[in-house]
Amino acid sequence: MASVRIGSLHKSYGSVQAVRGVDLDIPDGEFTVLVGPSGCGKSTLLRTIAGLEDADAGEIEIGGEIVNHMRPRDRDVAMVFQDYALYPHMTVFGNISLSLRARRMPKQEIEERVRRVAGMLGVGPLLDRYPRQLSGGQRQRVAIGRAMVRNPRVFLFDEPLSNLDAQLRDEMRGEIKRLHQEVATTMIYVTHDQVEAMTLADRIVLLRDGRIEQQGAPLDLFERPATLFVAGFLGSPRMNFVKGTLERTAEGSRVKLSNGGPILAMPQEGVSGTGEGADVILGFRPEHVRRATGGAVPDGQARVESEIELVQPTGSRSYATFRLGGQPAIAELQTQDVSRAGERIEFDINLRRAVLFEAGTGVALPG
Amino acid sequence: MAKAQPSLKAQSRRAGLARAVTIGLFVIFVVVPLYWVVITSIKPSSDYLTTPPVWFPAKPTIVHYTAALLSYRGLQGLINSLIIASAATVLSTLIGTMMAYSLARFNTGGQHLALWVLSQRFLPPVAIVLPIFLLFRTWGLYDTLTGLILAYTFMTLPLSVWMMFAYFKQLPKSLEEAAWVDGLSRWQTFWMVATPLAAPGVAAAAVFVFIAVWTEFFFALILTSRHAFTLPTIFRAFLGFQGAQYGEACALATTSLVPSIVLGMLVQRHLVRGLTLGAIRG
To answer: In angstroms, what separates the C-alpha of B280 from chain A's closest C-alpha?
Structure first.
């Protein structure tokens, strides 16, 4: 077990800068998820920690020891690859035990360790099989077993679930989380799937164009995104963004939506950071919109009327697309609250949970 | 539709016929000479050049085999060839696999070394045989098995390096990366992960090297005389002042076919995969 510290890390491939100046402190035992769109540098960062890529500049510390110039085998990290990377010419036993055999561990101890790990992962009966004889989920378990058997200081996962079907992915996600609770080893997990990031992470590190856009606890990022990018990346369906201008009055701040849309009074105590008339973007999540039940508008909410353009039922909830100041937005409503497209209804938008962004920079306004 | 069907059928029948004729001609082209060689090796001398030809001798004989193998020292040539070809195959494949891995994975020698290795094949043998002859005489390698093994190893290296290079290139790198992270050294990764995965390529390369050495004539002719001579060099003797010894020549030719056929059958399963990858990649 060990902490991981990364200082001003840079890595380029030719003229492409994959990682540009990443600083990251991962405490011992934490489950950190590196997440971001493809090409954001998350896999490169992970591979650099593993020692599969050399950093151009910056430092990587594992357990307080700088490992930049160490070979992968000396870093005592284990990695689970996206395509599993099981050795096709070895049995499951051979795959899991290879690292121990390479260290010339006594045969009996190898046997014990492999059987214990295989038991934990439910692949005990498969030890004599070859990878080609296993299902996708079983292969993934073997790949995890191969990483676990050594008791490494740090686990690295490179999109380990992306080759599995949806159901298996949910199942394995749960298992990886359980595994972390059991072994409590530092884990660094790369994914482009925000659901995986939200459900697994102690901390999410959201990368964009080789830089850290924001990091923090999953709910912090979800509730208080620092930028439009973060707000749009986390959550499904994604946060609604509508353009408007900021107005300041004696009672507080208001947002006048574009195209003659409604004026929404912001409940936050005085939005700071920008002035009267500034272009802003109001972000609110679909789940923070409800169908108005009549009567007074609840405190901190705004009531708007709009026609439903599209209904997408998912079962218990339905996604209703409507327009706000001419811009499309989605409301996540109770299925019984929405009947059909074309209906005009009133929505209550919970502005206490909404976020204002500066239109030019995309940075969230403090408030 | 009713009209189109018979014409389609007729078309496919014509195509089938064309295919059969083409394949048939090709088989005749390949098999008839072979048949003639094998049959001549058991024909009595009187049946060699008759008109019409004797398709199968009334009294088959093995006299040409005993003559070719014993009187013409064919047996010694066969043994020499087997030793030289086997040793050169092992050496060339071993060194070639390591070189190819290094070229494919660590970009050894930058962009040009791989092509430079291949370019050795462009050299006409006459251009280097004389210097090698002189060197071998100085070093005491002339007319020795060791000398010929060395010469053939270096001659066939470009072949084995390039076949293996293409093969290693197409192997997914993540398996080796997994091995590095698993704690294997580069050397262990090469032996325990990369080479077993490249087994079909190794088998294909080995077969090609073996056959190249087995059939090589020019170097063997120049670099050997009375001791280390190989099977192909013996054929000179059959076209001597006594006239052509068809029976003996064919007997030896038939004998020399055997190892190639056996080898081909042994690695047939690997051969196709090894060859096609080598052909497509690189």
So the answer is: 23
Residues of A with CB under 8 A from a CB of B: 50-52, 71-73, 77-79, 81-83, 85, 87-89, 98-99, 102-103, 146, 150, 156
Residue B279's pLDDT band (boundaries 50, 70, 90)? very low
Helix, strand, coil percent values for chain B (each to nearest 5): 80, 0, 20
Q: Measure CA of the first residue to CA of the last residue in chain A; give whole Å.
A: 40
Q: Do B180 and A85 touch (CB under 8 A)?
A: no
Cβ contacts from A onto B, under 8 A: 63
Instruction: Report the chain A residue with the minimal C-alpha distance to residue B191.
Output: A102
Instruction: Find the helix or strand (DSSP H, E) in which B27 lies.
Output: helix B4-41
Share of chain B above pLDDT 70, in %: 92
Residue of B nearest to A152 (CA): B182
- Two structure tokens written together for B174: 């993540």
User: What's the start-to-end Cα distance of chain B, in Å?
Assistant: 48
Cβ contact A345:A352 at 8 Å: no
| Per-residue burial over B217-244, b = 16 or more CB atoms within 10 Å of its CB, e = otherwise | eebbebbbeeebbbbbbbbebbeeeeee
Q: Per the structure block, which two tokens stand in for B151?
A: 């010469």
- How far is it, in rounded angstroms, from Cα B161 to Cα B148? 20
Reported as a single tens digit per residue, the pLDDT across B210-260 is 999 999 999 999 999 889 999 999 888 887 766 788 888 999 999 999 988
Tell me the per-residue pLDDT of A161-189, one tens digit each, with 9 for 90 and over: 988 888 888 888 998 999 899 888 999 99
Residues of chain A scoring pLDDT < 70: 268-273, 367
Nearest-Cα distance to chain A for B222, in Å, is 45
HSE, side-chain direction, 13 A CA sphere, residue A351? 24
Interface probe with A: pick from B181, B192, B197, most Cβ of A within 10 Å: B181
How much is the average pLDDT of B156-174? 90
Q: Reduce the secondary structure of A153-203 to three states and give it as a string.
A: CEEEEECCCCCCCHHHHHHHHHHHHHHHHHHCCEEEEEECCHHHHHHHCCE
Q: With a threshold of 0.90, does the pTM exceed it?
A: no
pLDDT tens digit sequence for B103-125:
999 888 887 888 888 888 888 88
Q: What is the pLDDT of residue B274?
A: 58
- Which ipTM was obtained for this model? 0.82
A83 interaction partners in chain B (CB closer than 8 Å) = 172, 174
Q: Which among A48, A76, A97, A99 is the top mutation candidate for probing chain B, defined by the most B β-carbons within 10 Å of its own β-carbon?
A: A99
Q: Which two tokens stand for residue A41?
A: 């540098």
* Pairing of the two strands A186-191 and A31-35: parallel
- Chain B interface disruption, residue of A49, A67, A74, A89, most B CBs within 10 A: A89
Measured in angstroms, the CA of B172 and the nearest CA of chain A are apart by 9
pLDDT at B200: 86
Among A216, A345, A212, A224, smallest CA distance to A291 is for A345
pLDDT band at B77 (very low <50, low <70, confident <90, very high): very high
> Which residues from chain A sit within 8 angstroms of residue B175, using beta carbons?
85, 87-88
Residue B177 has pLDDT above 90, yes or no: yes
The predicted pLDDT at position B282 comes to 31
Mean pLDDT of B143-163: 94
Nearest residue to B185 (alpha-carbon basis) of A6, A259, A98: A98
Interface touch A85/B177, C-beta < 8 Å: yes
Would you call B175 helix, strand, or coil by DSSP?
helix
